[in-house]
Amino acid sequence: MPEEGGAEEKVAYAGRLLRVVLRRTPRGVRELVEHPGAVAILVTDEKGRVLLVRQYREGPGKELWEIPAGTLEPGEKPYACAQRELREETGLSVRLRFLGVIHPTPGYSTERIFLFATEASGEALASGEIEEVRFFTKEEVLELARRGEGDGKTLAALALWKREGTHGSPR
Questions:
Q1: What residue segments make up the domains of the chain, in order of their start?
Q2: Is 73 annotated in the active site?
Q3: Which of 8, 12, 32, 95 is the most buried (most CB within 10 A)?
Q4: Which position among 132, 139, 143, 164 bears the catalytic label?
Q5: What pTM was estimated for this model as a whole?
Q6: pLDDT in tens, 65-92
């Protein structure tokens, strides 16, 4: 296994998006999913409602409601990716604010999700890859999560936005 960062690695799988490596560390052999990173955008309207998109997700095997998101292309900066994904999924083109970065599954994945926020007015339209786009109240977003119809990045973005809101911005 070649050296990388002091640990020995062997590629177990290399796909279009992900690589799975076996990394020998002082704590034993670990399986690690290498992911290029992603972005997610919390869009709110003038009423404080949250824009969610509905799409089928293979992991849970069902459609989920979540904030617009997507994977970074090679060499793409997170802000540019967020602008592209928001335009592709909703038709919106707006200025974004950086909220923070989360590591959704740090125990076995290198994935980082860069979170952004914006307020938008006007209509958002679903694209070919998106089943439906609509605004939800914060309470409805939380209820979707309780029922297993939402996702973690949406809740993380909402929490960071709410914290930001307690300091006067965006509300």
A1: 3-34, 38-165
A2: no
A3: 32
A4: 132
A5: 0.88
A6: 999 999 999 999 999 999 999 999 998 8
